[in-house]
Amino acid sequence: MNSLKPLLGRLATGETLTEAEAESAFGIIMEGEATPAQIAGLLMAMRLRGETVAEMTGAVRAMLARMTPAEAPPGAVDIVGTGGDGAGTLNISTAAAMVVAGAGVPVAKHGNRALSSRSGASDALTALGVNLDLPLGELPRVMREAGMMFLAAPRHHAALRHASGPRVELGTRTIFNLLGPLTNPARVKRQMTGAFAAQWLRPMAETLGRIGTERAWLVHGQGLDELTVAGPSEVVELRDGQIRAFTVSPADAGLPESPAETLRGGDPAHNAERLEALLRGERSPYRDCVILNAAAALVVAGNTDDLRGAAGRAARSIDEGAALAVLERLRRATQSDTSAN
After folding, report:
1. What positions does the entry give for Mg(2+) 2 binding (predicted)?
2. Quick one: pLDDT at residue 341?
3. Region 294-306 average pLDDT
């Protein structure tokens, strides 16, 4: 049996792992060959010293090698956050995904149940009547019929179950919080990704670059793992192997600023109700924030470099009923399981 012991001894002295060593270490964890104490020790040693891009990349490669993949059309994008910001907002990236799909860009959205909020993407979609327990083989059909599919992380990354006990018992952020948005099961080449802390934007962008991502915005907005309408947001862009940092304000997209508390969410039923009201045309700071994030995703998709123009396109997706139609198609497609016929 492989062992983490030699690597743990080095990590205890503050050393870092190479990409290959990290891939091997996380492979050992995901194959069920490490003890809970070893897993916890490795995670905390990395956390206390600070995870490196090489370690993140190795861990991502180990996860991608063991995931159950999903098929997505060329040009598909992901809109996803790390979670962990503790802000308890309404479901912004989930709504933005529907808006983007309504604008004609296929979305392969990766997500999970609530970890740090009261309503994660999985929770909100379930409350909206979307069936997330469909056989994974049905997902390509859902994508064709709805223009969007949801990739529930635990179903595609089952090997992570070996680390779930230590993660829960540690009760604190670990490298796994950073890895989720970097391991889309459809291997999309473009994504709009939020981080719970601005310090992780560049390392996450560098990691995505190492695994072949073509274009991405890594964003953090005033404490949120989203772009926000409460003020400027920090962005690190990966584009064709180059990385640059800049800020984005609501005014850049022709949108007004609103206080952060206007984005506060509740339980899944509440968030689902607000999301559907938004798609039905309700005007609010929530709508503005969703438009801002959808506009960024449209830029990442490569349709335009004009954020203001992309915001207009996102608004039309809502106002013309296209985004609501995505939700309705998603409901129908996931409730129809052709594999059972």
Report:
1. 225-226
2. 47
3. 94
